[in-house]
Amino acid sequence: MFNTKMSGLALALFTSLICCSLALKSPNESLPNIIIMLMDDMGWGDLGVFGQPSKETPNLDAMAAQGMLFPNFYTANPLCSPSRAALLTGRLPVRNGFYTTNAHARNAYTPQEIVGGISKDEILLPKLLKEKGYTSKLVGKWHLGHRPEHLPLNNGFDEWLGSPNCHFGPYNNIGRPNIPIYFNSEMVGRYYEDEFVIDGKTGESNITMMYLNESMEFILRQSKAHRPFFLYYAPDATHAPVYASKKFLGKSQRGVYGDAVMELDYSVGVILSWLKQLGIDQNTFVFFTSDNGAALYAAKEGGSNGPFLCGKETTFEGGMREPAIAWWPGQIEEGTVSISSHLRNELMAVRLGLYKAHYWTWSNSWQEFNSGINFCPGQEVINVTTHEQRDHTLQPLIFHLGKDPGEKYPIRVLSSEYRDALKSISPIVEQHQKTLVPGAPQLNMCDLAVMNWAPPGCDKIGKCLKGPQSAPWKCEWPH
Ligand SMILES: [Ca+2]
Known about the structure:
ten-stranded mixed β-sheet, Alkaline_phosphatase_core_sf, metal ion binding
């Protein structure tokens, strides 16, 4: 929500780890490969290592045992596009333009009709790495805009297999086109068609396996060529409509969502084994996380945020705190846990040490809530999970996340603990507000003419469609 703001913690961590490592190495030593595994809508509570009772993530649990677990890791934003834009730019969505000014504190992203996308003025991680000689590949969902200038190969990546938008559908290709799948700079098909089918009834799809094979082929090719690589592995099977391949369907205790988690866990295991088999594990930094918390409103198609309040689309812990594991044999000590205090500040909420202050609260509107959309099912907390945007800026709600990770018991305003916490947090908020230079908002305008009617390469496979005339309007973001 303040989806206009957030922390660049994710990228700051990667950058500090990687830059330190680069600085420590002599010029003769090869540069470390980098793999960021970004899950879609997977929650903190979906991993066995964080207590998921079904214990269906043995590979991620082993990865944590061999590496470093981050129980306090935050995304930049509780929604796909702004979170991913922040990850790749290292800048808050309000700075990199992934927000809207059409209404106050709304969640905005890049559906097919969005006109904007990642600004040409932003510097993305693969662009920085290219200067060091890296080859970069995206496997999976992009979500930083789907018009040609916004696509991955025009923003620092060398290769891509995946889609520019969420795999919503199927559509009829008349009022709305099915989302294309790209191979590098040209489309090779559309979701729900040919080999990219997702069976709406069973949830069966081979796409996660396709992404795994593509990732392994890329790693092998770079390894053989002795070229440093950056693999941004961003499969989207845990985003509704969730899907899994036949081998995994029905195997979990948690329905198709759990099957998708099992398949992704399997894929992570295969990739880590592949690195070992190729003898490059000691020279590859792997970081696993998710773009936002589990979508509780998706009911059985959504995951778990463990003990945390609410989920995707909210700035409560369930929306912002993500599962995270760093793995780099020989560099990161086995079985370590990082609980270092960190700072995350934005207009809606700020965390400092164990204290979190909410300056605004909102789950979703009464209108939406009454129509059955609930971002906090079973977790209504009076004056906290509010259904109107409630302004607490004069007297923020403060929680102690150590004693109260579920954000259910605000600290009494008249207590010395409250006064002390606020005294520490206020200067940080002031500093943030004083230094904030908002980017031009990219998520304000929509237009049906910009949808994926005729992406590059459509003529070669007979998949070009005819769209309507341009008729832009101000996008509406309901929550
Ligand atoms: Ca997401």
